[in-house]
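Sample A.
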Amino acid sequence: MVALPTIRQLQMFVALARFQNFRRAAQSLGVTQSALSQSIKQIEFLINVPLLQRNRRHVALTSAGQTFLPHAVRVLDNLAIGVDLIRNAGEPDIGSVTVACMSSTLLRLMPAVVENFRKLHPGLRIHVLEVDAVGIGDRVRQGEADFAVSVMFKQDLALDFSPLIEDELHLVCPPDHEFATRQQMSWRELTDYGMQQMVQWSGIAYLVADVGGLEDISRRATYSVTRISTVLDIVSESGLLSVLPTLALSSLSTGRHFHHCPMVEPTIHRSIGLITPRERPLSPAATALREVLLHTVQELGDEGLPGARLVSTNTHRQARSPRS
C-alpha cells in the first residue's frame, strides 16, 4: 500500500503555502518551526518531489508544489464537509432535507406538510422539488432527493414504495363537448371514438400497460404530453379529450371549467406514496419530514385531498410492485 501524507501534514503544507514563511505558518498551527519543517520534509520524501524552494527569508512553491496545493486544499475541504455532515446527522433539528414531488401532490399535500414541518422543526431546511412522475425515482436513486411523494410507474430494485393514497382515471373534456353529459365512459367507447382525438398524459401508458387492449394507447393519441397542466391547456384550447388522474384534476384545474367522469370497464386506480432508497437509510432530517408527512396525510383525510382517498393506515407498509 502506497504511503500517503497525513491530514496534519497536509494542513502544515497548506499553511506554509499560504504564509510563505515558516515562523508565521508555525504560529498559525500552534507548532514549532522545526516540527513544521520536519513535516514538509516527510511529505517531500513520501512523494519524492520537492514542493518548496527555501531561503533564509522566503518560501516559494515549486511547480510541483503549485500542482499539489489545490489537491491538498480539496482533501481538507472535503474532510471538513464530511465531518460536519456526520456531526449533523445525529441531530434531528440540524441540517436539510429534499423531497421530490409530482405536481398534484406538491399542490394538494405539500403546503400543509411544509407548514407542519416548520412548526415542529424550525431549525431544519426543507426543499421541495417538482419533478415529472415518470422520472421521479431517478432523483431518489441518484441522491438528488432524500425521498419522493409520487406514483412509481416502474419496478426498481433500488427503491421501496409505500402507498399512502390512491385516485382513479377520469375522462376529461370541455363543457361543450358531446361527452359533457356522460356520467361514465368505458375504455372501449373511448377507443371506438378515436384516440386521435386525445391529448395523452405520458403517465397513462404505464397505468394501462397491464390492461388488455390498451397496450398501444400511447401510439394512437395526437399529443403525448409530460405535464398534466399542459394537457389541460390543450383540452381547453382545442376541444380534445384526455384521461387524467382525479387528484391532478382537483389540483390543477382551478379557474377552468371541464367536465370529467370515471373511466370504467375497467376502473384503473393510481397509487401515490413514498419512494425511498432501499439500501440508503434516511437521515434524521428526512425521517422527521417523513413522519410529519404521514401524520399530515392522516390529518387531511379524504376530505382534505379531493379526488383521492387514503389506502392504508399502516405507515410502514411497503409494496414491491408499484402498479395498482
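Sample B, a different protein:
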Amino acid sequence: MTAAEADMTPSVATPEGSPVRLTADSSEAGVELTWSPVTDATGYQVYRWNPDTKAYEKLAAVTGTSYEDTGAAKGTTHFYWVTAGYADGTESAPGGAWVALAP
C-alpha cells in the first residue's frame, strides 16, 4: 500500500449535512465502511465508483452508519461516496470520495 492509498483525507470539502468521518477498511468479506450520523437523516445511500461506466453506482440504502461491501474485487482500489437521505425524499451532497483496498 502506498502513502497515497493509505491517506483517508477527503479529496473535496464535505458539504454541511453530509456524512463525515467516513472510514473504509479492508475486511475478510470485502470493505467495511463506517461514518458519523447526520442529524435528521432517515437513512444513507452508499455508492462505489465503477471505472467501466465512469460513474458512482448505488450499492445500498441503509438505516445505520455502516455498510460492508462484499462485492468489492480483491486487490483493487475502490472509491466510495455516502449520502444522507431525509424524510422528504431529498438526498444530501456526498460526504466526499474515499479510498480503500479490498483484501
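Observation for Sample B: The longest helix spans residues 3-6.
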